[in-house]
Amino acid sequence: MSRNRSKRVWCYLVLLASFALPLRCAVAEDALPGAVTWQQLAPDEQKILKRFADKWDSLPVERREKLRTGAQRWSNMTPEQRTQAKDKFQRWQKLPPEQQAAVRKKFEEFKQLPPEERARLRSQFQRFRELPPERREKLRERWQNMSPDQRQEFLQRRQNQTRPGLNR
């Protein structure tokens, strides 16, 4: 009988732990610095983040902070910038999941580059964006018509041209 009782006690403890652990984690997370509750958000933040109202307090702290940062960026945008951001987001949503994954992967690779390399790439991209639309289209067509080997060779030449001291 004592063995049966210890089994019941053990089961009770496991059951209790299974309920208490998530609750403890949630309480501990709210106690962390930066774990802002829904009620602590400013009214303008609540307005922007209203679709997260029901689940806000259960979101991980990191996610809450990213959402708050995004809300702050949104509130600082001009109406034109907001329209552009909405358009970009709609284009993103229309991408197939494979393409979204490829873009995420490239972005992660970009973030791993040294700051100087990221600055160089941003500068090149900005120069490309400033080209007339017809010129950009011609460059895109040229790129698309290249074989993978031609693309690699082209990139290598460009890289050597834009990095002093690497020309051979």
Describe, in plain words, how this protein is organized in 3D:
By secondary structure, the chain is an all-alpha fold. It has a domain of 56 residues. It has eight helices and no strands. The radius of gyration is 26 Å and the shape is elongated. 2% of the residues are buried. About 8% of the residues have low confidence.
Highlighted features:
168 residues, mainly alpha, 0% strand, elongated
Structural class: mainly alpha
Low-confidence stretches: 9-17, 27-31
Give the biggest beta sheet: none
Measured by DSSP, the beta-strand proportion falls in under 5%
Series of H and E elements: HHHHHHHH
Number of strands: 0
The amount of helix comes to over 70%
Number of helices: 8
User: Distance between the terminal alpha carbons, to the nearest Å?
Assistant: 86 Å
Output mean pLDDT.
81
Report the principal-axis shape. elongated
The whole-angstrom Rg is: 26 Å
Describe the structure concisely.
The chain is mainly α and 168 residues long.
Task: Give me the secondary-structure topology.
Layout: H1 2-31, H2 43-48, H3 61-76, H4 79-94, H5 97-112, H6 115-130, H7 133-145, H8 148-162
